[in-house]
Amino acid sequence: MSAEENPAAEPAPVIDVQGDGRWMSQHNRFVQECKDAEPDVLFVGDSMVQLMQQHEVWRELFSPLHALNFGVSGDTTCNVLWRLQNGELDNIRPKVVVLWVGTNNHEHTADQVAGGILAIAQLLLSRLPKAKIIVLGLLPRGEFPNPLREKNAAVNNLLRASLPRLGPVQFIDVGGNFVHSDGTISSRDMFDFLHLSAGAYRTMSTTLHELLLQLLEETPQERRASLV
Amino acid sequence: MSEDSNPAATPTPCEDIQGDGRWMSLHNRFVSDSKGKEPDVLFVGDSLVQLLHEFEVWRKLFSPLHALNFGVGGDATHHVLWRLMNGELDYISPKVVVLWVGTNNHGHTPEQICGGIMAIINVIHQKLPHAHTLVLGLLPRGKSPNPLRARNASVNDLVQAEVASLSHASFLDMDPGFIQSDGSIAHQDMYDYLHLTPRAYQRVCQPLHERIRSLLDKHAP
């Protein structure tokens, strides 16, 4: 599905409707961080990524890996695509990129959302040919079974099948344990039935952290070579 | 300003546009949570209230005060009004209600937002005649000076003036000085120039905690 056919793969900034320009401020800050920092790991996506940085687990597990967090609450695949094409990949050479986006694509079908995520993965691979990509699956949401759970699961199934064909891209589903046998999600795991509590972040971060350590170990030390 | 002419003071539930019914789930959970609990303090408002519950500062400063948290991200005054009129105050008798809402009232004037906040104070007073409502001032927002900062400051001025004549309500300015000398707000305080980092919450919650403690002490027989 090309960008012309798939609206979820069309880069688009967020228009400042509220009046305080916060989205662009955050984007500009990330572009500046690219000039100052040399991250080994880049996290990019929506509020699921952004909020992670506000919890202890970020400082404990991911800061030591020299990770940058380019999450923006509310972002769709279109917004992330735009940000990455407009400066947020300039001057950095992360070894691993963690991508977590798609749950806010309310106007798009599961096919379109998966296509949007694929487009982002393709962009990352073309801009960072030596990087490995981890795509996190969309989590279930809502207290009870609802259409968005089905949609997110459908996106995950499409990604599971198509992502590995792109190259060094892995799909990780961290949502396995959130839906209980009665079909409900607990507010202890998702305080608003969408966003993760500190405890839930800690649980999923352990898996992700182990995978990152593996991938970082496998990647040769490029930086030494480039300084010569 | 009558309720009919002020959208910010017209109780309105949030429409489930996204399709997972989360707003109503949260409201229902707050109503059922309140049955069988006896909080001394109730926090109600938007995401600034809701996210407070997710950080260590809640456990350290507010759990010991027997506090409940009825914050919902995105809520404006008319949403909070609806929630409080539809069950969230029916089963509890807190001594202090902490109200923090207004920054999401997009499209409303400061006068309308103030009217919304006063309507909420009224409802709380009707349902809980012995409770004291502590209204928290709206924080500045945005990285650089912008119209919403002016709007929020106007709301604070209006609310502070109206509340001055009430014995069952008072106002607390929550801004410890987030706006730096160059007019900017640091992302170390507001990671998205709206929501508070854990360290900023620590800063604003100290005075809030002290104020609540003194209100509780006054309330004691």
UniProtKB/TrEMBL annotation, chain A:
The entry's keywords: Cytoplasm, Hydrolase, Lipid degradation, Lipid metabolism
Residues covered by the SGNH hydrolase-type esterase domain: 43-202
Catalysed reaction, written as an equation: 1-O-hexadecyl-2-acetyl-sn-glycero-3-phosphate + H2O = 1-O-hexadecyl-sn-glycero-3-phosphate + acetate + H(+); 1-O-hexadecyl-2-acetyl-sn-glycero-3-phosphoethanolamine + H2O = 1-O-hexadecyl-sn-glycero-3-phosphoethanolamine + acetate + H(+); 1-O-hexadecyl-2-acetyl-sn-glycero-3-phosphocholine + H2O = 1-O-hexadecyl-sn-glycero-3-phosphocholine + acetate + H(+); a 1-O-alkyl-2-acetyl-sn-glycero-3-phosphocholine + H2O = a 1-O-alkyl-sn-glycero-3-phosphocholine + acetate + H(+)
GO BP annotation list: lipid catabolic process
EC assignment: 3.1.1.47
Primary residence: cytoplasm
Keyword hit for Cytoplasm: yes
Keyword Translocase listed: no
A GO molecular function held by the record: platelet-activating factor acetyltransferase activity
Protein's cellular compartments: Cytoplasm
Entry GO CC: cytoplasm
Family: Belongs to the 'GDSL' lipolytic enzyme family. Platelet-activating factor acetylhydrolase IB beta/gamma subunits subfamily.
Protein name: Platelet-activating factor acetylhydrolase IB subunit alpha2
Gene name of the record: LOC113049065
From TrEMBL, chain B:
A Pfam entry, by short name: Lipase_GDSL_2
Swiss-Prot/TrEMBL catalytic activity: a 1-O-alkyl-2-acetyl-sn-glycero-3-phosphocholine + H2O = a 1-O-alkyl-sn-glycero-3-phosphocholine + acetate + H(+); 1-O-hexadecyl-2-acetyl-sn-glycero-3-phosphocholine + H2O = 1-O-hexadecyl-sn-glycero-3-phosphocholine + acetate + H(+); 1-O-hexadecyl-2-acetyl-sn-glycero-3-phosphate + H2O = 1-O-hexadecyl-sn-glycero-3-phosphate + acetate + H(+)
Subcellular location as annotated: Cytoplasm
Enzyme class: hydrolase
Keyword tags: Acetylation, Cytoplasm, Hydrolase, Lipid degradation, Lipid metabolism, Phosphoprotein
SGNH hydrolase-type esterase domain residues: 43-203
Name of the molecule in the record: Platelet-activating factor acetylhydrolase IB subunit alpha1
Species of the source: Carassius auratus
